[in-house]
Amino acid sequence: MYKGKAFGVGPRALGLAEVTTGNLLLTLSGGVMLGYFGVGWLADRFGLPRVALVGSSAFAAAQFALALFRPGWPLWGLYGLLFAFGLAGATSLLYFAHAQRLFPHMTGRATTAVNLFGIGGGALLQWALGLVAGQFPEAAGTAYSTLFLLTGTLAVAASVGYAPLGRLEQPQRVPRPSD
User: What is this structure's pTM?
Assistant: First the structure.
C-alpha cells in the first residue's frame, strides 16, 4: 500500500529525483516514437514476422536488463535500457499487420482478436503485477526487479509462441519506386 514513500516500480524505486525520472520516461517515449516510425520500414526490408520476432526478443532482453539494474550504476545505462525498451516495444504494432496477412478472409475478426487480447491481457497483467508488487511493501527495488523478471519471462514465452506463425509466411520485400 502506498504510504508516501517511493513505493512501486520504475525509476522512482531506484531513489531517483523526480526530474530525472521524468527525463527517463521521456527517453522511453522517444524510443517508442522512433520505433513506430521505423518498424514499418524494417518490416518492408526484412520481413514482417522476422522483425516482429526480433523486436519481441529485444523487448524481453531489455526487461531482463532492467531487472538487473541497481542504484549506483551509471545512469546513462538506464537511459539506454529504457530507450531500447521503448524501441523494441513498438514492434508490437506488427502483430496487427501479420494477423491481416494470415487471415485475409477475416481481417476484421483477426485484428479485433489481436486488439481484444492485447488490451484485455494488458489489463489483467497490470492487476496481477499490482498483486506481486504488493508483496514487497518496503522493498521497492526488489519489486522493480521481480516485476521486470516476470514480464521478461512472459515476453519470452510469447515470442516462443509466436515463432511458428512467422514460418507460415515467407518474408515479402515491398518494392520501392527507387528499386
Answer: 0.81
